[in-house]
Amino acid sequence: MLGRLRDTIRNGLRKTRESLRERIGTILPAGSGGREVDAAMLDELEEALVLADLGAELAMELRDGLEEKVLGKKVSGPDELARMLEEELLALLPPPFPEVRPESGPRVTLLVGVNGSGKTTTTGKLAARWAREGKKVVVAAADTFRAAAVEQLVVWGERAGARVIRARHGADPAAVAFDAAKAAAASGADELLVDTAGRLHNKKPLMDELAKISRSVSKTIPGAPHDTLLVLDGTTGRNAILQAREFARVTPVTGLVLTKLDGTARGGVAIAIGRELGLPVRYVGMGEGEGDLLDFDAREYVRGLLEPAGGAA
Ligand SMILES: Nc1nc2c(ncn2[C@@H]2O[C@H](COP(=O)(O)OP(=O)(O)OP(=O)(O)O)[C@@H](O)[C@H]2O)c(=O)[nH]1
Ligand SMILES: [Mg+2]
After folding, report:
1. Which of 66, 170, 192, 247 lies deepest, with the highest CB count within 10 Å?
2. What is the number of the ligand 1 atom nearest to the C-alpha of 116?
3. Is 268 close to ligand 1, i.e. is its CB under 6 Å away?
4. Which atom of ligand 1 is nearest to the CA of 292?
5. Are 90 and 302 a contacting pair, CB within 8 Å?
6. Which residues contact 274 (CB under 8 A, 6 or more apart)?
7. Which CATH architecture has domain 107-305?
8. Nearest to 298 by CA among 288, 306, 310
9. Residue ranges per structural domain of the chain
10. pLDDT for position 313
């Protein structure tokens, strides 16, 4: 299991890693006989981190940490330099976040985000994963705006063995969520996933609709939603951070999902975003398949960002 996780992360982060490693190789070429850490080298490193979308803030913190610990130290080559960065990054990351579980009744997870960020796919992947773990899963297709979204969910649901609650096109999403909460509670489900329509954070009526959906599930399931996951397209890099700030201002977001991290050179954003927003990254999407949604494991992730091609250094 860990082997597969590692492989998926390593494959997904290949572009980011290659671009980072290339820059590290320029700062300190292999076979060059090493170099002493000086201010110029720290500047170059800081720039490399910013370019991998780790964010200016985090890059600066890393630079400061390295300055304190290794200034004047001789570094033998790019691998040692990458390892120093890896240690420093890990030291800066927040500890993992415990999952919130209600004492009884279904746990409700609401998925929100802008258009096309990967909400429906993530809903389907979570349904599949939880069903595979033996949980009883109900899915609310509360995107009544796009007929294709409902079809998409029904396909995922059938594959996963999860019940999908749907309504006719254009129905009130809060009503669908309400019906789904009732169905989930009545059938003794463990998990209720609520997929919502894509919305821009600056469109007030749509943001108000999210609050209405939350209220309607809480009528049947007190304390719900237990989790509001903001789904962000990882390929948008820093833009995802701006979006997240705006969303978090109007909705009580409890966690982040970063999708499409396969095939982007901006994978550093997953590290930056959690830290800058004070919100835990819960899952990362590394592909379109059912098994391509991974728990965010900071340690494996940082390794995937920096490890040299040959595997464990
Ligand atoms: N490569 C890759 N593609 C993904 C990932 N997650 C989602 N996608 C793709 O991104 C596209 C949009 O995904 P959806 O799940 O429909 O996005 P959405 O947020 O529900 O979109 P709207 O409902 O229109 O707002 C689809 O083609 C997905 O297959 C991922 O982790 N990796
Ligand atoms: Mg959708």
Report:
1. 192
2. 21
3. no
4. 31
5. yes
6. 93, 94, 256, 280, 281
7. 3-Layer(aba) Sandwich (3.40)
8. 306
9. 2-95, 107-305
10. 38
The ranges of the chain with pLDDT < 50 are 311-313
What is the per-residue pLDDT for 262? Answer: 84
* Residue owning the nearest CA to atom 5 of ligand 1: 260
**Ligand 1 pocket, 119 CB below 6 A?**
yes
Tens digit of each residue's pLDDT (9 = 90 or more) over 196-229: 999 887 788 888 999 999 999 999 999 999 999 9
- The answer to whether domain 2-95 has CATH 1.20.120.140 is yes
CA distances 38 to 206, 217, 219, 240, Å, are: 51, 57, 60, 33
Ligand 1: which atom is nearest the Cα of residue 285? 31
- The 3-class SS string of 76-145 reads CCHHHHHHHHHHHHHHHCCCCCCCCCCCCCCEEEEEECCCCCCHHHHHHHHHHHHHHCCCCEEEEEECCC
259, 266, 281, 295, best to mutate for ligand 1 pocket (most atoms within 8 Å of CB): 259
Task: Starting from the CA of residue 115, give the closest ligand.
Answer: 1
- The Cα–Cα gap between 302 and 90 comes to 7
Residue nearest to ligand 1 atom 17, measured at CA: 118
Q: For residue 290, what is the DSSP state?
A: G
Q: Which ligand is nearest to the CA of 290?
A: 1
Q: 3-class SS at 167?
A: coil
Ligand nearest to the CA of 114: 1
